[in-house]
């Protein structure tokens, strides 16, 4: 019964890992993966020494790092806030609304961004009361990260709060009653009762997010790119796609992709190690 | 509840409600805007913004979008891809999860490790593309359906579920002389409806909303799913000329294309948004099971 999953995994997950050796070759489609010449780390050196490298690497790092810093606390705050809503029906309805954007596709979310932030769009109509010139949100590199991160929070924060909401629902009300009798106010109770309960989950969510720092979504960044915002909008995944599948430089593109994967794994292991130290031995593994 | 609220507590609770209401408004207002805008008369929308006057409304956008052949075909393709993908994913994950939940399976931890590695490390875009190409799947529906069908998360989810199914049930069936296959099909599967439902929902929604695989593997426009059609309308601004008659001036075309975008958003997102409240508890269940290892 394990066979279908095993076979599919070997073909479609391990197959590409084997294929990734083209990163170390001067790949020619005619000679195939085995027949092509070995070139060692040439393709990696080419990427690391290219003028694009620093820009694209830093773009990737900044986009996801800022995204993590800004986005990580929001679901936790939402969950703590929802937890204070005492009427179950009201809470349910708020959750229903907050989760909704999670079911809207990336294409539609980015489509909405283009419409809302266009020079004649509703946001600029609002801003026109303050500024005379419309702001070119989507074409200016300086706005890209903000738009990307804030819209990510808009789409996913509500949904991401589920897991914390569930953990908080398991808090024994007696704990709060007892603390209340002892004179603890609401903030003190949140800090000393609610937060410690969700701390292990926070650690795991954080590790997973940090481990994915370099693999932030191709899907959204690619759609949000315009001819003029590329100085900040080009990230490793979109670069890999462009040089690989669009320009056809398979070997070089694979090297860049592999470089990215390796950094990811290193980050995951490092973050897990640090969190484990800080979190009394509670890590992902 | 015996909790007594001090003045400070009440202030915090009031602030809490305010922030929650703000959060809900921030989520909901853009959606309401899109829905109302999609019903607006194009020229009124462009010159005056939203209007709540019925005479300023029109169904022009919906007429164009619902009669657009690319849109209809994309919708049909998306239904097919999402359903086929969901069925395949569920079958693969349930079988693997069931096998891995059984203590008698030798080398379980080895298999688990083999699966888990793929969660954090992969060959990358180009090798995956070359593989799909070499297998001859390019420009076939299989390219969208098969490569993503095995998903470690789903296998873990179903393994966790099956671990919760009492062993005694299986043993009793065994005593009654049922074969392994019979036990799985007539004892375990009927109990697995919740997990099947959860996995199928996740797979369906995920596939419905994705565009990337289709973009790289499918050149043939007649195979394109809804999201790719939407991409060309919403992001590449390629409103199909056949949707707008040639006699209209450029300015008119621009107005109309805005309305078409709003209508396209509503038409493509509404099915999921309408259905999701009914399935919310299942989605939540999926998140929960997945989080408890």
UniProtKB/TrEMBL annotation, chain B:
Q: Which residues cross the membrane?
A: 12-36, 78-98, 110-130, 142-162, 183-205, 259-279
What is one term from the GO cellular component aspect held by the record? plasma membrane
Subcellular localization(s) per the UniProt record = Cell membrane
Membrane topology term reads: Multi-pass membrane protein
Pfam families documented for this protein:
BPD_transp_1
Q: Name one GO biological process term.
A: transmembrane transport
Q: Where is the ABC transmembrane type-1 domain?
A: 75-271
Protein name per UniProt: Sugar ABC transporter permease
Species whose genome carries this gene: Paenibacillus durus ATCC 35681
